[in-house]
Amino acid sequence: MPTINIKRDHLHNELGKVYSQEEFEDLCFEYGLELDEVTSEREQIVKEKGDKKTTEGSTDVIYKIDIPANRYDLLCTTGLVRALMIFQGKVDIPKFIAVDPVDYSTNKILVTQNTQSVRPYVVCAILRNITFNQDLYDSFIDLQDKLHQNLCRKRTLVAIGTHDLDTIKGPFLYDARTPNDIKFVPLNETKEFTAAELMEHYSGNSHLKPYLSIIRDEPKYPVIYDANGTLLSLPPIINGDHSKIKLTTKNIFIECTATDENKASIVLDTIICMFSEHCSPKFQAEKIQTIYEASNETKTYPKLNTRSEKLPYDRASRMLGAKLSKEEICKLLDRMQLKCSSDDDGSLINIEIPPTRQDILHACDIIEDVAISYGYNNIVKTLPKVVTIGSQFSLNKLSNQLRYELSRCGYTEALTFSLCSKDDIANKMRLENEISRAVHIANPKTIEFQVARTSLIPGLLKTVESNKKMPLPLKLFEISDVVLKDSTKDVGSRNQRMLAALHYNKFPGFEVIHGLLDRIMQVMEVKYNSEGTNKGYFIESTNDERFLPGRCASIIYNGNSIGIMGVLHPQVITNFELVQPCAALEINVETFLKR
């Protein structure tokens, strides 16, 4: 969930009212948002650097507000303030307009065939007569960063470029050229670089380094030029310094290059809807034609289209369990920036969805807005109309009881990822064949999440690896599911509830982990069977590549092995970059339900 930082005093000024923190928290809650933290620039610097005596940064109070990931219109101060003002009925819903320019001869961009293999799409628009102040300028830059991280998928789908229109001249050219043929002065630099040199120059830049790989291995890089041959942008990396936006900028040229044309159009519309409010005339943007050389096709942006949805007026009442009239529903939706009107026979509500509400994909999204506007706390609680009595799932009940007992033994619960890398469950654990037992992800996005875990122990070891500075001993446990292949299941796999515990200290601690096993069996009322028969439990020596030979035991319960315990092999410890010995225990919880 993205978080936006807004200066409290600036927010109050825009809202036209000074709120107490509690009042603003209530307003956020009513709208479905959350005030996550109240801080300041200086406090954030203290947290990052640990220097309590620092004088860096402002002491102005900053509100950090959590925003739903699909509400792109709330990712800046302008959008948030507008939404809250409309919600309170203080301003009307704006109407956004895309106007034709006086002359399309300069308001166009030619897309060459060279771009088809790298970033084939571009959409553009112009904002005229905008008035910046420092807070608005900061919000303008911050919105682009938020969109890059969110909707633009870290610039892989869309990259945004904004330029001072008064420093450049149309028509524009979107081309792709070899790295050594591209020369320009990048943003906030004074030296001219080739694109190849820039790749090396920014390889140590923490902000831009993650984006270099998007085009680095391509034979040609995308570039945008103006009519004078001035390079405006090397997307998705950086803009040129020549056309950078300043506080004095009045006219802005916006270009979004993309691998997904629809996403680019949404991004362009979002930026325009947020900042056209500060233009003259308001809520208006100027169109630019995109001419594709490969297909000889011409498209015009921005779209700023509204779309319509029809909703039976009684459906919202029925789904929410609240008796609402058609007029009440219309008023509630107006508060959520959705204009409503009745159809001819009055059975349906016609809802106009503005370009700011790209999150609305279905009628259920509209009903959710009705619920937010009405207030979840105002919905009367009722019992479901079914003849049944609910009860806790037995496996979850047992798991919770075991969590309570393990925490009483001084162990801290960890919650680790269900997905992990192949290396975590195989090479690091000295189990080369474990990969064949694992369920694989067909299209993993990162090497950290390639397979479903087959054991909880690697996750606990990675938790210790991330907390090596904590005082010893570290005693961790986790009760959760692993995923195992199972040809008898229709999906080819099954979940299995496991319990794992780990003791990390200066000495191995086999007896400590053994004591934990005895306590688990004691609370489960399972007696120790020293005779080794098929009743109760006992342990017997076994060999496992993960554990030290002679310091590993199989746990036998009612004649079947249900888990393993022992001192982990030094190579396993080293593979997880740990330096102290470690004992571990892992058992199958589900077996206790079958007795």
TrEMBL record:
Origin species: Tetranychus urticae (Two-spotted spider mite)
Protein name listed in UniProt: Phenylalanine--tRNA ligase beta subunit
Annotated family: Belongs to the phenylalanyl-tRNA synthetase beta subunit family. Type 2 subfamily.
Domain B5: 304-381
EC number(s) reported in the record: 6.1.1.20
Cofactors named for this entry: Mg(2+)
Lineage: Eukaryota, Metazoa, Ecdysozoa, Arthropoda, Chelicerata
Family annotation (PANTHER family): PHENYLALANINE--TRNA LIGASE BETA SUBUNIT, PHENYLALANYL-TRNA SYNTHETASE BETA CHAIN AND LEUCINE-RICH REPEAT-CONTAINING PROTEIN 47
One example of a Gene Ontology biological process annotation: phenylalanyl-tRNA aminoacylation
Location within or outside the cell: Cytoplasm
NCBIfam families attached to this UniProt entry: pheT_arch (TIGR00471)
